[in-house]
Write a structure and sequence with these properties.
By secondary structure, the protein is an all-alpha fold. The chain contains ten helices and no strands. The protein has one domain. Helix 1 packs parallel to helix 9 and helix 5 packs parallel to helix 7. It starts with a helix and ends with a helix.
Amino acid sequence: MEIILVLVGILVGTLSGFFGIGGGMILIPILILLGIDIKSAIGISIVQMVFSSFYGSYLNYKKGSLILGEGVWIGVGGFFGGFMGAIISSKIPEAILEYLFFGLILFALYRLFSAKIKDDGSIKSLNPIILFTVGTIIGIFAISLGVGGSILLTPILAGFLHYPIKKAVSAGLFFVAFSSISGLISHLTIGDIDLKKGLIVAFSSLIGVYMGIWLKEHVNSKRHKIALLIMYSMALLMLAKKMFLG
């Protein structure tokens, strides 16, 4: 099992760096297919997200694709929302969590599909209170489902606020750094995280994060968007198989 978790970690880390996701959207369905229950999968996913998001955000900042400014306000909101999300997830039945997760991916797929490609660097400025509120709401919902929140934030930035795709992806991963650390603290307090499996996946994911960010910098925005749509669709199919076919 350990070798499989290492390979899964590298795969998820690569996807995390390339798509700006925490990795939970891909990792949770894979862990479920490996026979791990969804609540344990959520815990493992959160540990992995902490490692991949901090390392990935550092690399994005060095490469100039991460603009801190507004991202900090969204991130702080996500930090507070993450605490509440961890508590909520411990009280919700597995079946409901699965359906919420399915709906989350479906929404993200729609928003990304309708988002217009934008390659220039202009970004619409928003009130910090609005950004904080958006971050809090996303943090509550995301950590409840074991994902970092970029699955929701990136489509909102690209589809509603017209961020360039690559900057939206970088901002999404930065948000994960805030929401996942608060979610980790809350889950550790509750005591429902398998740290051994989580750390195996997390450390392995760092290799993948480096490769994913390198790849992201070498593709154009149109191809990046197509890849995002394919990734969201595959995650949706994986979860649907488990939910409806067993």
